[in-house]
Amino acid sequence: MKKIKSIALAMLTVLNIADAQTTKKSQQQNPYTLVYEGAVSENVKGQVNIHPVTYKIKDISIAANVYTPPNYDPAQQYPALVVAHPNGGVKEQVAGLYAQRLAEQGYITISADAAYQGGSGGTPRYVDKPANRIEDIYAMGDYISQYKGVDNTRLGLLGICGGGGYSLKAAQADKRFKAIATVSMFNSGVVRRNGFMNSQVATIQERLQQASEARAFEAAGGEVLYANNSTTPLTDEQISKLPFDLYREGYIYYNRTHAHPNSSSRYTLSSLMDLIIFDASTNMDLINQPLLMIAGSKADTYYMTDDAFSKAINAKNKELFLINGATHIETYWKPEYVLQAVNKLVNFYQINLNNHNDEF
């Protein structure tokens, strides 16, 4: 048994080194620092083009990428999609992958780095408050609605992982979004409060106390304290001992195969005060737009999608779509799973952005 485990770890090491080298080479060659497979590396006439843009949320500069579809003509009218990235992610990773794939199908898409994170401004760095993430989504809607060629009556929303939870909250209030979809939705508040799969319920008050003390320390002029602040890379053996698929595969995705210098899992400890009292699945009855929620059948995060979906009692044409065999992280990059998700999304948006009801 030990021999088999040693062989497995050795194979994992080889694969991770090869993947990391491929990703690093890809990023070095990509002027937009995109780290996903098949990413746009130059703007070619007649193909999907990428346009780095900036805009402000109050006094904070936001870095975003807009993808325009093949043969884009600003004199024409196109449906548009806002794509919200995962917790700790950036627009150059999975959000960019889905934004590009959907642009290939005729949509103008936008993905932006959250305020205080990635290439966007805001200090202290890595503030991770739900209200900010929801405002990020509103602001992407503001910007893309004014983009040349966008038909702002056909605006859709896609949230991935943590961005999926924040998209559900944004859609509850913002009826500019005519069709709402999530991929591998992650309810950040529930996990920060109870722990993943309810593994930290016993320490809620202790963690709230730590967050409160961190805020007091900052207010008194002390240094900003962070959660998930370790910079020491994990070994393959340490990764294999992480308790959940999400953590094991997520570590490899964010730190090896699809690493990006602007991506970080750390967040200000004081943010926990806001995160712990947040819940993406409350007030789901306010979503009256069409709703599609996609998850992997093997995803250990599926319970969050299932819970939110069951509460969306007023959503139009709502559908839960499971990708057979996929884990949470595999929906970020594995070609066959991404293809299934994109095909489902395209069908969903084609139906609901072309035939939406103006009452939304």
- What is the CATH homologous superfamily assignment? Alpha/Beta hydrolase fold, catalytic domain
Low-confidence stretches are 1-23
The CATH class label is Alpha Beta
The Rg value, from CA coordinates, equals 20 Å
In which range does the helix fraction lie?
Answer: 40-55%
N-to-C SSE string, H for helix and E for strand:
HEEEHEHEHEHHEHHEHEHEHH
The general outline is globular
Reported for the largest beta sheet, the result is: 8 strands, mixed
Mean pLDDT: 92
Number of helices: 12
Named CATH topology: Rossmann fold
**Strand sequence of the main sheet, in spatial order?**
1-2-4-3-5-6-9-10
- Which structural category fits the helices and strands? alpha/beta
**CATH architecture designation:** 3-Layer(aba) Sandwich
The end-to-end span amounts to: 58 Å
Integer count of domains: 1
Number of strands: 10
Strand content: 15-25%
Architecture overview:
Helices cover 41% and strands 19% of the residues. It has 360 residues and is α/β, with parallel strands linked by helices. The protein has one domain: Alpha/Beta hydrolase fold, catalytic domain (Rossmann fold, 3-Layer(aba) Sandwich). An 8-stranded mixed sheet has the order 1-2-4-3-5-6-9-10, with helices on both faces. Helix 3 (130-145) crosses helix 4 (162-173). It is globular and about 55 Å long. Mean pLDDT is 92; it is low at 1-23.
